[in-house]
Structures are given as C-alpha cells and as structure tokens.
Amino acid sequence: LREHPDVCWTVIRRRSVAVFLDALACYGRVVTTRGPCLHWANFFPSSEAYHMARYRLFRAGILAGRASGREGPHLELQREGPRDTIFRPQRLWNQRWSGFWHVIVYDIPEARKSYRDALRHILLRYNLGCLQKSVWISPRDLRPVYDDLVQAAGLSAVSYLLEARTVLGRSSQELVQAAWGFPALSRRQDRFIEEWSGSVSELRTRLTKARSIETVVRQELLDYRDAMALDPLLPRELIPPGYRGFQAFRTHSAFVTAVRQHLRTARWG
C-alpha cells in the first residue's frame, strides 16, 4: 500500500535525529548549569533541524538562512551550471513513477525578488517543470528537499507543496509537454549529436588528427553539458516521443570510450 502523502520516512528520520540532538544539547545545558534550562521557545523549532537542513542545502550549492532584522529568510543558488546527474542519467530514467505529481505553488512579493529568483533557479536545479508562472511540477518526491527549504529558508510562509494524481482533462503527456520545453531541448541535443556522433574508431581518428586532445575533450564536455542542461531526465514512461536525450548520452559515452582507448594506445604504443 502506498504511504500517506503526509508521511515521508526521509523527513521523519531527519526530524527524529534533529530532535534527538536537540535533546542531548538541552540535557547538556541542564548538567552544566546544574539546574533546569528547558526554554521551549528555543527548543522548537528545532535548532538542529535548521542547521542540518542548511548543511544539506549547502552541499547542493544552495545558501539559506533565517530572517535577520527586517530582512526575510535568505535564499541563494551559489553554484550555477550543469548538474552531475547528466553523467549518470540512467539512474533517473530508470526510476519508476508513482503516478503522482508533486506540485509547488508560491506567491512571493516583488519586494523579495531575489528570494523568488533564487527559488526558481533551485527548482530548475531539481528538474522541476514550470507549468505556469508560479506553479512547478515534478514526478518525483519533493518532500525531503521541500522540508529542508522550509526549515532553513521559511519556504512554507510563501508556498504550498501539493500532491496530485491528475489534472482533469489533461493527460500526463500533455503536462510534460506544457511544463518542459522539449522542442528547444531536442534542437540542442540534435546539434550535439550531429557534431560528435560517429563510431569509436572514427572518434579516435579525430582525436589523433587534433592538435590538442585537451581542447577537443574540453569542447565536447562543454557541448554535452549545454545539450543536457535543460533535460529533466524524466522516468521513461513520461518521456515524450522524439526524445533525443538517449542518443545524446550514447554519443557522449562513445566519445569517452574513444578518449580512453586513444590515451591507452598513446601510453603503451
């Protein structure tokens, strides 16, 4: 049976650890002060949950923090650029879809434009699709990352996380086409495939003729990242017809194989 939407074991486990650490810190204060030191205003919300959420977001390249003075919570995408998942896309392609969409809706005032812009970039980083201006969807469970943003950046004050099985009158493929720009993505990936496709032997010949193999490798990597930067890497059952991401990844993999063989030959030949 499917778990209740409000029950996410990842979130429960994280919060349980945070409460345990909070309790240890509280009992430590009791011991060191030799008296009761339980101030509920400081005990909840969990200080440990806040710091742990900040740390997890920081590892993902996201800076978040509580309000300071009149300023609201801080949110910033620190590391721009491509995601590491484009080098292991099978892990996301092969994930089973539960049949449910996770939907984030928000209303952030113009005065908090930097917070709003940062949130949009973060949602893109996590492969969400923009169904409408402030409505973003994903076929994957967003509860853990959403909870981190709630704990560390107060996201619940300006947003809601919803779960939906369907949108009446719209198929899953219609939602996919509306939320993600697959025509533009296909054009990018077609350019990459046209430029770098070929057998391993053909690619090795190209590397041999190149003046600098480092330049060729760097250019291929830049082109591959550009081709995959906007790819949501959806589960296979949601991928629309004509999707070119599979071929783009095979093209990149063939190039990597050709480089390895070329370097092995150059080393031992």
Describe it:
- The chain is of the alpha+beta class.
- The chain is 53% helix and 10% strand.
- It contains eleven helices and six strands.
- The strands form two sheets. The protein has a four-stranded antiparallel beta sheet. It has a two-stranded antiparallel sheet with strand order 1-2.
- A hairpin with an 8-residue loop joins strand 1 and strand 2.
What order do the helices and strands come in, and which of them pair?
Blueprint: H1 9-33, H2 40-43, H3 47-59, E1 62-65, E2 74-77, H4 90-93, E3 101-106, H5 113-125, E4 129-132, E5 135-138, H6 143-153, E6 159-164, H7 172-179, H8 182-196, H9 200-209, H10 213-228, H11 245-268
Antiparallel strand pairs: 1-2, 3-5, 3-6, 4-5
Helix pairs in contact: 1-3, 3-6, 8-10, 8-11, 9-11, 10-11
Summarize the structure.
The chain is an alpha+beta fold and about 270 residues long. It has helices spanning about 10-35, 40-45, 45-60, 90-95, 115-125, 145-155, 170-180, 180-195, 200-210, 215-230, 245-269; strands spanning about 60-65, 75, 100-105, 130, 135-140, 160-165.
Q: Describe the strand arrangement of the main beta sheet, using strand numbers.
A: 4-5-3-6
Please count the helical segments.
Answer: 11
Rg value: 23 Å
Shape: globular
Question: What composes the largest sheet?
Answer: 4 strands, antiparallel
Mean pLDDT: 85
Q: Kindly, what is the distance between the CA atoms of the first and last residues, rounded to a whole number of angstroms?
A: 59 Å
Indicate the low-confidence ranges by residue numbers. Answer: 33-44
User: What structural category arises from helix and sheet content?
Assistant: alpha+beta
